[in-house]
């Protein structure tokens, strides 16, 4: 997802009532009793009205015997008919979802099919609020897509809308006016012209979150390339508006560079089977799996802006780097609850620093991450309550990224840090996880107890202060303004010398190299979340 300096718009626009949050975020019996295996989604989309007519065929496994299942589809979209085991069955629309009576046996596999139609709500500020993006290109031709991370796939098609379950694979067939091309996730498995309509069928062979399933309609042309990566040849396809072909050919030269650096840090691109695509979109961009939405106008920075103010953020295209980074964190490693979204956004934010480090050097990376600290608001906790469809503070981006930088700094071993990132990708390859699992794994793999650090910066808004007190020539040190039992190592600099110290919340003697008050300072590349307060007493 895009970064947070514009994210307050999203919180205001898509905020749900407390009641709807509890329903949407709940993993109740109607959701937890079945596992989505395959979506076969077919849609007919107009180039002007925005009305969608479609069918959805869900293959699922019954995790227990049940007599009712829940299907999420947001008003004004409507289910018209449901077929289960070759017969039409009734359904009930509750306030927030459809309740469908079906009788199942534990561990059996079933198929349920339904017809639906409607016009999704218009996205007012895409991609931050969800809905239909019914636009026109510079030549007045239809240019249509969906933006739905905040509102999820339920905004336009029937699905199981919970982050804890992804279909193992899916197929999306787009039936659209023949003058347009229809682009989606995965690989094109069929296309044809049928009268006034064109048909494009796309197959995704990997698990995919429902908000990543997106149609793109426009006057597209294709640019083909390949990348020789760690899993062999990766197909690269760029779909852009015809009049932007030359600009795209030049700007998208950054893609192989990005892939090379990210594969160095993280291991193989997670979706070789589905390929990699950039699709020009009528909004700024989004991490749609294997079909990253791109709308940065073929320029470096974030719409030409360096978010870090360090100068390094204008050396690369923000949307290419950040949104592609989500292929590893967000699309490959996915959290089960919206409350743990910092795992997606904090790690991906830090990939911007790792890209800068790998391309321009360690100091450039340090400058970039330090520069982003000014965007931290510290207004509320990064992790909010669970089970209520709630995101935490937008600080999940910059504070989350600086938290990862802090961990890397304390580890003080980039090869170990790199191995840690790669192990996380391997351990949760195409799998669902939680923040708690990731936190425990990092502590276990590094042999460093990071639990107090995670609790402090993810679950409070307190900023620990490192206090140093002098008693004649002896210095004492402690952490203050923090949780009880907080402890964190930090590098202390004195002139050209340095020493690692391990303060707790209790005063303890400081083994400084020189008993020199003026030259004692913190390493500036350490986490932003360490402030020194020198008490000259």
Characterization of this structure:
The chain is an alpha+beta fold. The chain is 23% helix and 30% strand. The protein has an eight-stranded mixed sheet. The protein has a five-stranded mixed sheet with strand order 16-17-18-20-19, with helices on one face. Strands 9-10-15-12 form a four-stranded antiparallel sheet, with no helix packed on it.
Please describe the topology of this protein.
Layout lengths: L7 H7 L3 H8 L3 H4 L1 E12 L6 E11 L6 E3 L6 E7 L2 E2 L3 E2 L4 E3 L8 E10 L12 E6 L5 E6 L21 E9 L3 E3 L3 E8 L2 E8 L11 E3 L1 E10 L2 E10 L3 H7 L2 H13 L9 E5 L4 E2 L5 E3 L23 H8 L7 E3 L6 H19 L1 H10 L26 H14 L2 H14 L3 E3 L1 H12 L4 H9 L5 E7 L2 E7 L9 E5 L2 E5 L6 E2 L10 E3 L8 E5 L2
Parallel strand pairs: 1-11, 17-18, 18-20, 21-22, 23-29
Antiparallel strand pairs: 1-2, 2-8, 3-7, 4-5, 4-8, 6-7, 9-10, 10-15, 11-14, 12-15, 13-14, 16-17, 19-20, 23-24, 24-27, 25-26, 25-28
Helix pairs in contact: 5-6, 5-7, 6-7, 7-8, 7-9, 10-11
Helix-and-strand structural type: alpha+beta
Apparent shape = globular
The largest sheet is: 8 strands, mixed
Fraction of helical residues: 10-25%
Q: What is the average per-residue confidence, as pLDDT, rounded to a whole number?
A: 91
C-alpha Rg, in Å? Answer: 25 Å
How many strands in all? Answer: 29
Helical region count?
12
The strand order across the widest sheet is 5-4-8-2-1-11-14-13
Unreliable residue stretches: 4-17, 528-537
Distance between the termini: 48 Å
**Portion in beta strands:** 25-35%
């Amino acid at each position: 997802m895009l970064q947070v300096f514009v994210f307050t718009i999203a919180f205001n626009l898509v905020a749900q009532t407390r009641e709807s949050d509890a329903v949407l975020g709940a993993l109740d019996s109607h959701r937890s009793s079945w596992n989505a295996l395959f979506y076969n989604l077919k849609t007919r989309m107009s180039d002007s009205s925005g009305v969608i007519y479609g069918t959805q065929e869900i293959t699922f496994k019954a995790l227990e015997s049940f007599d009712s299942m829940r299907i999420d589809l947001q008003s004004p979209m409507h289910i018209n008919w449901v077929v289960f085991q070759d017969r039409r069955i009734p359904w009930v629309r509750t306030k927030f979802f459809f309740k469908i009576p079906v009788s199942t046996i534990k561990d059996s596999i079933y198929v349920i099919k339904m017809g639906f139609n409607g016009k999704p709500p218009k996205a007012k500020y895409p991609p931050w609020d969800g809905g239909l993006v019914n636009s026109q290109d510079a030549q007045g031709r239809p240019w249509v897509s969906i933006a739905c991370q905040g509102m999820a796939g339920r905004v336009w098609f029937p699905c199981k809308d919970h982050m804890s379950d992804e279909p193992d694979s899916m197929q999306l067939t787009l039936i659209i006016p023949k003058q347009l091309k229809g682009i989606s996730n995965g690989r094109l498995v069929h296309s044809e012209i049928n009268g006034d309509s064109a048909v494009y069928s796309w197959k995704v062979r990997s698990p995919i979150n429902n908000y990543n399933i997106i149609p793109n309609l426009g006057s597209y042309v294709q640019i083909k390339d390949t990348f020789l990566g760690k899993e062999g040849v990766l197909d690269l396809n760029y779909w852009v508006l015809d009049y932007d072909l030359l600009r795209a050919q030049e700007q998208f030269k950054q893609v192989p560079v990005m892939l090379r650096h990210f594969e160095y840090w993280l291991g193989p691109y997670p979706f070789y089977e589905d390929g990699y695509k950039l699709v020009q979109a009528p909004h700024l961009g989004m991490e749609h799996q294997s079909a990253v939405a791109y709308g940065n106008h073929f320029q470096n920075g974030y719409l030409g802006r360096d978010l870090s103010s360090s100068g390094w953020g204008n050396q690369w295209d923000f949307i290419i780097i950040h949104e592609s980074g989500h292929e590893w964190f967000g699309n490959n490693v996915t959290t089960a609850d919206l409350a743990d979204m910092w795992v997606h956004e904090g790690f991906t934010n830090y990939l911007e620093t790792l890209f800068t480090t790998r391309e321009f050097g360690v100091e450039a990376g340090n400058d970039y991450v330090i520069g982003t600290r000014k965007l931290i608001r510290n207004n509320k906790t990064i992790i909010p309550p669970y089970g209520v469809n709630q995101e935490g503070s937008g600080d999940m981006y910059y504070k989350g990224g600086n938290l990862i930088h802090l961990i890397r700094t304390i580890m003080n071993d980039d090869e170990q840090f790199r191995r840690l990132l790669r192990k996380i990708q391997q351990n949760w390859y195409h799998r669902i996880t939680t923040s708690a699992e990731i936190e425990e794994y990092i502590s276990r793999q590094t042999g460093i107890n990071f639990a107090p650090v995670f609790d402090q910066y993810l679950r409070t808004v307190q900023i620990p202060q490192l206090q140093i007190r002098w008693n004649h020539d002896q210095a004492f040190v402690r952490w203050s303004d923090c949780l009880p039992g907080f402890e964190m190592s930090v590098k202390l600099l004195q002139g050209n010398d340095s020493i690692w110290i391990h303060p707790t919340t209790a005063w303890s003697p400081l083994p400084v190299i020189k008993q020199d008050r003026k030259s004692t300072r913190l390493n500036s590349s350490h986490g932003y979340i360490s402030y020194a307060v020198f008490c000259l007493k």
